[in-house]
């Protein structure tokens, strides 16, 4: 797929101007919450935390992470210290037009989706403390770089992520952010893909987790459903435990195709059908077995 030319930067209207982070750039005021990666602020302990996380997690991925992720992981470059984002962009931008940009943490939906729509992936520029090695509440630089960035080297997934940005801004306008965030959660963060040689993880929340990678692909405990967009958008999720339900795709092209149609009628259908618990069993679900 030819590298898509990123659209012109988005200029915020007054209403969506964020409380901080207004940057004047090339004459445009781009209030997008991004900040330069504060590389000097990282301590030796921070770099060592990244190295330990990278070594532990990359040893776990064979047989559990999808092939595209394993193929792209080396493109993150250095693994004995936190990479400079421009080191990654030197490879990523020529590959799919994506650019990693630093943000101070979780940012509001509109700036987040606007960045995605412009092929800019927001990467948190701090790293967890050694005490948080096994669990963090918010995404840190390791979750974002290790979990999210490798698949941005894949042209189909890269195009899908940009479509998410535009879709997110549309959902915001329709008041459907909650529904769309469930789809994001169960695909981009916790999605599974069925390969010829079995189930594998592609969701960043799984790929960057030492415990959930094995659980999601091997445990008989959770249910696994073939991805149905409406079913997925009805399904609540928990942020502080392993998923009780995983949604499974057959390929990134299928994911791209399933999410291409206009979601407006689906958002209405989700409202009518109502929400489902994270572990709900529902008639019409297509179960995916472990074998
Ligand atoms: C879209 C997703 O569901 C969630 O709402 C957004 C909000 N803001 C974010 N901000 C950052 N920095 N990183 C993220 O992953 C997200 N996720
Ligand atoms: N096709 C969706 C937008 C979208 C694209 C890709 C991923 C998620 C959402 C819509 O019309 O709202
Ligand atoms: Fe994430």
TrEMBL record:
Its cofactor is Fe(2+). Its EC number is 1.14.16.1. Pathway: Amino-acid degradation; L-phenylalanine degradation; acetoacetate and fumarate from L-phenylalanine: step 1/6. Residues 1-291 form the Biopterin-dependent aromatic amino acid hydroxylase family profile domain. Keywords: Iron, Metal-binding, Monooxygenase, Oxidoreductase, Phenylalanine catabolism. It comes from Rhodoferax ferrireducens. This is Phenylalanine-4-hydroxylase. It comes from the Bacteria. It holds the Pfam family Biopterin_H. It catalyses: (6R)-L-erythro-5,6,7,8-tetrahydrobiopterin + L-phenylalanine + O2 = (4aS,6R)-4a-hydroxy-L-erythro-5,6,7,8-tetrahydrobiopterin + L-tyrosine. Belongs to the biopterin-dependent aromatic amino acid hydroxylase family. The keyword Iron applies. InterPro entries: ArAA_hydroxylase (IPR001273), ArAA_hydroxylase_Fe/CU_BS (IPR018301), ArAA_hydroxylase_sf (IPR036951), Aro-AA_hydroxylase_C_sf (IPR036329), Aromatic-AA_hydroxylase_C (IPR019774), Phe-4-hydroxylase_mono (IPR005960). One of its GO terms (molecular function) is phenylalanine 4-monooxygenase activity. NCBIfam families: Phe4hydrox_mono, PRK11913.1-2.
């Amino acid at each position: 797929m030819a590298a898509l030319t990123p659209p012109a930067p988005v200029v915020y209207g007054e209403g969506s101007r964020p409380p901080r982070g207004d940057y004047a750039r090339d004459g445009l005021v781009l209030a997008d919450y991004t900040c330069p990666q504060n590389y000097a602020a990282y301590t030796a302990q921070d770099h060592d935390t990244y190295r330990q996380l990278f070594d532990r997690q990359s040893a776990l991925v064979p047989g559990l992470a999808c092939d595209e992720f394993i193929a792209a992981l080396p493109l993150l470059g250095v693994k004995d210290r936190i990479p400079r984002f421009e080191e990654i962009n030197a490879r990523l931008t020529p590959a799919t037009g994506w650019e990693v940009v630093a943000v101070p943490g979780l940012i509001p939906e509109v700036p987040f989706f606007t960045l995605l729509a412009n092929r800019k992936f927001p990467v948190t520029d701090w790293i967890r403390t050694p005490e948080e090695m096994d669990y963090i509440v918010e995404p840190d630089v390791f979750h974002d770089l290790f979990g999210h960035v490798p698949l941005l080297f894949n042209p189909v997934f890269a195009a899908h992520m940009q479509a998410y940005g535009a879709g997110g801004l549309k959902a915001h306008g329709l008041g459907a952010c909650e529904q769309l965030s469930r789809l994001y959660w169960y695909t981009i963060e916790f999605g599974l893909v069925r390969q010829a040689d079995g189930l594998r993880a592609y969701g960043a929340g799984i790929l960057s987790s030492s415990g959930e990678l094995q659980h999601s692909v091997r445990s008989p405990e959770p249910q696994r459903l073939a991805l149905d967009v409406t079913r997925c958008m009805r399904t609540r999720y928990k942020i502080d435990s392993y998923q009780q339900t995983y949604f499974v795709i057959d390929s990134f092209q299928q994911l791209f195709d399933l999410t291409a149609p206009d979601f407006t009628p689906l958002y209405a259908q989700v409202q009518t059908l109502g929400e489902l618990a994270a572990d709900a069993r529902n008639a019409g679900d297509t179960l995916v077995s472990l074998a």
